[in-house]
Batch of 2 targets.
Target 1
Amino acid sequence: RVLADAAYDSKDHWNRMEELGIEFVANISGCLDPKKRSFGGYRKRGCWSRAEHVKRILEVGREQWKARSVIP
């Protein structure tokens, strides 16, 4: 399991860890307001696990997401 800060929040990091079978959680960087960004791009490029984390942040809030993601 790898927990990373926002500096490692990239498509390449998320996908590579998934390929290696390593659970990867990085602090999601940038604006998550759906009105200000397009989430479709991550799905099109194959960042499914990141997209799920973004979706979860929008549902429960960043602090609750952090608590649930860091402590299994």
Target 2
Amino acid sequence: MRLFGRSAERHEVEAYVEGAMPRLVGLAYAMTGAREDAEDLVQDTLATVVTKWSRISGAENIDAYVRRTMVNTLISKKRRKWTTEVVSHELVTADTARPEGTGVAHRVTERDAVLELLRQLPDRQRAVMALRYYEDLPDAQIAAALDCSEQAVRSAAHNAMKTLRRLLPAREWQEVR
């Protein structure tokens, strides 16, 4: 089965995917919190995008379309997924004290701690935070990607920050600000 009728179209798609892949995996990782889930999400998203490329390539903002497709794919997967994950009391009440030191190991540990906190947010709030702080999108573009109002985006961001502040020990929050 040929997905593309023209060789030029194939090269156009390949160039887009090659250029966008690191950014898409990073965004997906911020949205899912797990490398494997992020890679699966990007693969599913790009499968959709590639099969519709002739229609998408004429869009004013291809990245916005791809982000929207990624969000919809994630939401659709979450709806279909039957989960039996049980969160233990020990995990919820575990001390999340900041590790001492600097350098790469410290930054990785901090990044992982932030991602762990983000995993505790509801899907929409996590998507808003990823699009706002990872993709650095304005509220209008986030609203378009999530198919909601700008007020809903601001509300989700506010609620996410409130939850994150509650989850993060007070002394650490003072240092982060």
